[in-house]
Amino acid sequence: MQEIEYLTVAQVAAILKCSTDTVIRRFSNQPGVIDLGSAEKQHKRQYRVLRIPRYVLNRFLDQKMVA
Questions:
Q1: Which of 64, 60, 63 is nearest to 29 (CA)?
Q2: Interaxial angle between packed helices 54-66 and 20-27, expressed in degrees from 0 to 180 and rounded to the nearest 10
Q3: How does strand 34-35 pair with strand 6-8?
Q4: Which residues of the chain have pLDDT under 70?
Q5: Alpha-carbon dihedral of residues 29, 18, 6, 27, nearest 10 degrees?
Q6: In this predicted model, what pLDDT tens digit does every residue of 5-24 receive, in sequence order?
Q7: Rounded CA separation 56/8 (Å)
Q8: pTM of this structure
Q9: Residue 48: how many CB atoms within 10 A of its CB?
């Protein structure tokens, strides 16, 4: 069985050379990404903590290379 490598938002931002906000926007709705953050409450914004599998990042890069 192969172990899945999970990356943090900061690690993906460093790889893509973009901000952490951009990574959260682009990857929050991707299938396979784990959201460990808290839900939005009445007077507080949603706190996002994502774990992005390496294969999701590779799939994203493959799609961007074709386009």
A1: 60
A2: 90
A3: unpaired
A4: 38-40, 45, 67
A5: 0
A6: 999 999 999 999 999 999 99
A7: 12
A8: 0.82
A9: 17
How buried is 57 (Cβ within 10 angstroms: 0-12 exposed, 13-18 middle, 19+ buried)? Answer: buried
Backbone angles phi, psi at 50, to 5 degrees: -105, 150
Q: Which H/E stretch holds residue 15? A: helix 9-16
CA–CA distance, 33 with 41 (Å, rounded to integer): 22
Residues 6+ apart with CB under 8 A from 57: 7, 12, 15
Per-residue exposure over 9-25, b if at least 16 CB sit within 10 Å of its own CB, e if not: beebbeebeeeeeebbe
Q: What is the DSSP letter of 31?
A: T
Phi, psi torsion values for 23, nearest 5 degrees: -60, -45
